[in-house]
Amino acid sequence: MTTLALNAANRSFAFLGSFMDALDKAITMARAVHHDSPSEADMHKVRAIAETI
After folding, report:
1. pLDDT of 36 over the 80 cut
2. Angle (deg, nearest 10), helices 40-51 and 2-32
3. Gap between the Cα atoms of 13 and 11, Å rounded
4. pTM of the prediction?
């Protein structure tokens, strides 16, 4: 029983870590773009960040 609980906790922790990493990258992408008038350079920044996901 303890082994199953530890296994479930490890999977939950791994999922939470992946989720937090994806959220951090999404925030970084949002900050990389000038929302008034996105430029080509902004799009390159977003693509570079997206490739790391």
Report:
1. no
2. 170
3. 5
4. 0.61
